[in-house]
Specification:
By secondary structure, this protein is an alpha+beta fold. It has 9 helices and 21 strands. The structure holds adenosine-5'-triphosphate (ATP). One of its GO terms (molecular function) is ATP binding.
Length: about 350
């Protein structure tokens, strides 16, 4: 049985459809990331699960209970928002204890129990001894750790994170994302996190739900989403990529302008073949070599990215956009990839991935 099950959930604001028949099943202990561009409905979905928005239709089941019409207080979750949302006039301890008080989970041990719980929570998020500080005395990352401690203080069975890292600087963001992931694994708490940052999603999620215009586009592991995007939107949104159109030839061969390539997959729509190639899947060869699926290309632009170069190539493939390749800096050591340079590149047959849908 799924720990969280969302069935045909729809939400409208006036005539605008923010969520359109969302189906999603989350397993116990899973870390699921809702990913999509601004305005696609991620936050609305999270808020509807929290009971902070009411759906127009559809169901939400949590641990076998129908919570579709339960009030936020009747639902069992902890939530962390993008802006730290701590009470500035309350100490760290009071901020964390607030959740305990409001949910009446202090128990018989009363205030002493609450103090111990606050201390335990601060240990858990790596801020021991910070009880008496105030939010303004903490960095952004520390404030989000306190917000996390507050969300976890009632031992909820569901953790909802709404862009918890987006207000932090780059270094703190990377640090906190691995801390959150480790903590989540350790506690085994089922977690849903909203982000529009694809790197964050790829590095943290067990599964990613890619959304656009209130609809789910694809659900899969980071590897599945990255390697096999199901449509143009996902292909475009996740990482860099080349969408290529071709005409069919015999025996798994396809013609891209003047360039003929073999595709190893049998799943090509031969009537309208379209493919997807990641920049890092493009090979670079000595100009005199002629491995399978290789062709010549002229460098039009070369950007140094640190560990790699991003190289824009003019080819005879006759596509709407130039081909973009990514070559490792180590591999290029000593060779010159400057605008105008003639290269021999290849798209290996198994890296030429068919697109099944253009929606
Ligand atoms: N209370 C509301 N009233 C009217 N429209 C709303 C309301 N809340 C959200 N919307 C609209 O619903 C759509 C989805 O909003 P939502 O906040 O869920 O998007 P999002 O994917 O989380 O985007 P972002 O990353 O920018 O927060 C947006 O077009 C937004 O303007």
């Amino acid at each position: 049985m799924a720990h969280l099950e969302i069935k045909q959930l729809s939400k409208r604001f006036g005539s605008f459809t923010a969520l359109d028949r969302i189906d999603l099943s989350v397993a116990q202990g899973e870390f699921v990331v809702l990913l999509g561009p601004s305005g696609c409905g991620k936050t609305t979905l999270l808020r509807t699960i929290a009971g902070l928005e009411r759906q127009d239709s559809g169901e939400i089941m949590h641990a076998g209970h129908d919570i579709s019409h339960a009030s936020p207080a009747q639902r069992d979750y902890g939530i962390v928002f993008q802006s730290y949302a701590l009470f500035p006039n309350l100490s760290v301890a009071d901020n964390i204890a607030y959740g305990l008080n409001s949910r009446r989970k202090i128990g018989v041990a009363g205030a002493v129990g609450a103090l111990q719980r606050v201390a335990d929570m601060l240990d858990l998020v790596g801020l021991p001894g910070c009880e008496q500080k105030y939010p303004t005395q903490l960095s952004g990352g520390q404030q989000q750790r306190v917000a996390l401690a507050r969300a976890l203080a009632t031992s909820p069975h569901l953790l909802l994170l709404d862009e918890p890292l987006s207000a932090l600087d780059a270094i703190e963001r990377v640090r906190l994302r691995s801390e959150i992931r480790q903590l989540q694994s350790r506690l085994g708490i089922t977690t849903l996190m909203v982000t529009h940052d694809q790197e964050e999603a790829l590095s943290m999620a067990d599964r990613i739900v890619v959304m656009n215009s209130g609809r789910i586009q694809q659900i899969g592991t980071p590897q599945e989403i990255y390697r096999a995007p199901c449509n143009d939107f996902v292909a475009d949104f996740i990482g860099r990529g080349n969408l290529l159109e071709a005409t069919s030839q015999a025996q798994g061969n396809f013609l891209f302008g003047k360039v003929r390539l073999r595709c190893a997959s049998a799943a090509v729509d031969v009537a309208a073949p379209r493919f997807y190639v990641r920049p890092e899947d493009i090979g670079l060869h000595a100009i005199t070599d002629t491995p399978e699926n290789s062709f010549t290309a002229t460098v039009s632009k070369s950007e140094f990215m640190g560990s790699s170069y991003l190289v824009t190539l003019d080819t005879d493939m006759d596509q709407r956009k130039p081909l973009v390749a990514q070559f490792s800096s180590n591999y290029l050591e000593g060779s010159s990839i400057h605008p105008g340079a003639l290269l021999r590149v290849s798209i290996p047959a198994e890296r030429l991935r068919p697109m099944t849908s253009s929606t």
